[in-house]
Design brief:
Largest sheet: 5 strands, antiparallel
Distance between the termini: 31 Å
Number of helices: 4
Order of helices and strands: EEHHEEEHEHEE
Oligomer: single chain
Strand order of the largest sheet: 1-2-3-4-5
Strand content: 25-35%
Helix content: 25-40%
Shape: globular
Number of strands: 8
Structural class: alpha+beta
Length: about 170
């Protein structure tokens, strides 16, 4: 059975598998995780969440957040992909990304995001992709703008702590 895979010059983006659990914990240990949902303290609980995500999200949508791996070694260094979320009053393709703190500044986040945006435009025929970023996350706010996202005016109390940016495809 063929599995999903996007290749860039230095990366492979692929669906997560249960065997990625230890790599996920390592990724979170190496990274600033103040602005994302933490992993469960109990690895067995997180494994069940991962298996459920694989089955239901990839199974239903055919996409989701993917493992970002170095092409050269196969090492899991991040996660990047799309989710369908309600932003304001609209269902949107929302980009999520995280690269290990060990690899910050190497251009991997940009490479992964560009690949996901290309996928969204070509495979999903998405008109746009949005990203929600905590207002305190200055590095991610700057990154999104550098990648070509621009602010989106959203009127919603649920988004008070977040800035929403859009990338038109």
């Amino acid at each position: 059975m063929d599995t999903f895979r996007i290749e860039t010059p230095r990366l492979i983006l692929r669906e997560f598998v249960p065997e990625d659990l230890a790599g996920l914990y390592r990724l979170y240990e190496e990274s600033d995780t103040r602005y994302i949902e933490p992993l469960a303290k109990d690895p067995e609980e997180e494994l069940e969440k991962l298996k459920s995500y694989i089955h239901y999200i990839y199974g239903f949508y055919g996409f989701g957040l993917w493992a970002v791996c170095l092409k050269e070694s196969g090492e899991l260094i991040g996660r990047c992909g799309l989710q369908v979320e309600l932003i304001g009053d609209e269902g949107e393709y929302e980009l999520g990304y995280m690269i290990s703190g060990r690899y910050t500044g190497c251009g991997y986040a940009s490479e992964a995001v560009k690949a996901v945006l290309k996928y969204a435009g070509e495979e999903l025929e998405a008109p746009r992709v949005v990203v929600r970023i905590n207002k305190e996350n200055k590095a991610s706010l700057a990154f999104a703008q550098k990648e070509g996202f621009h602010p989106m005016d959203i009127k919603s109390e649920a988004n008070d702590d977040f800035c929403v940016f859009v990338y038109d495809l």
